[in-house]
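Hi P.,

Sorry for the delay on this. The queue was packed all week, but I finally got your sequence through. Input first:
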Amino acid sequence: EYLNDVLHAVEAGKSTWWRWLDKFEVYYNKKFEANWKNKDENFWRSFPYV
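Then the structure:
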């Protein structure tokens, strides 16, 4: 399944990381607490993978 996501992203010219972050968001929310991405908005604006 992940390989298909990567191939589709490459075909569409998108980053291959965005699906990884989406698929594991529940894990990241448990590990870092909910809304962990909102704590450093400057980082996420400059992060090329989302």
